[in-house]
Hints:
Elements: E1 6-10, H1 17-30, E2 36-40, H2 46-56, H3 66-90, E3 94-98, H4 101-108, H5 115-126, E4 133-138, H6 141-148, H7 162-176, E5 182-186, H8 191-209
Parallel strand pairs: 1-3, 1-4, 2-3, 4-5
Helix pairs in contact: 1-8, 2-3, 3-5, 4-5, 4-7
Amino acid sequence: xxxxxxxVLEGIEGSGKTEMLIYLKQILKKKNIENIICVREPGGTIxxxxxxxxxxxxxxxxxISDETEILLFYASRMQLIKNKIIPELKNGNWxxxxxxxxxxxxxxxxxxxxxxLIKNLTKMLIKNFQPDLTIxxxxxxxxxxxxxxxxxxxxxxxxxGIKFFIKVRKNYLKEIKKISEKIIINASLxxxxxxxxxxxxxxxxxxxxxK
Length: 211
């Protein structure tokens, strides 16, 4: 069994997963694991970050179509996988990613007509390249959205309403059941409790799987 791992953090807006990624890195360092690469989706490479800016921004007089949005996500993802994640894993580094393929399934499948395209792209491009561990931060949408209101710059996706995020969470809860190596955290709680739960569950997983 390889010692280094590919770990993904998932959750809706306001779940706190980005902050918990930093905390997870701290936990690993206390376990004397220093070779850690953190990435985000969409993004993580120069090209992927340029695609991120297109995905996230509202462009005047040119609304992004569902198909274009999905294809941009997969273009960004494949650039990240091929040019960063796989090479870094081969070099023995740990990868912690803020989002991965599960995000596209949860978000873009809100419109049922998109499901077939996502399924086909996953099968054709992602294939069996899956994380060693998925950590899902489950958040009640009203709580998550109240948290992001405080942000200065809210992007195109974050502006979607409560009904959208209720559907996204429903998709997450359905899809996370299909994943064998997972940790589910109640991220609606206060930050200190989320950290406590994450540390306990992650160290338990680490002790079993990183030997």
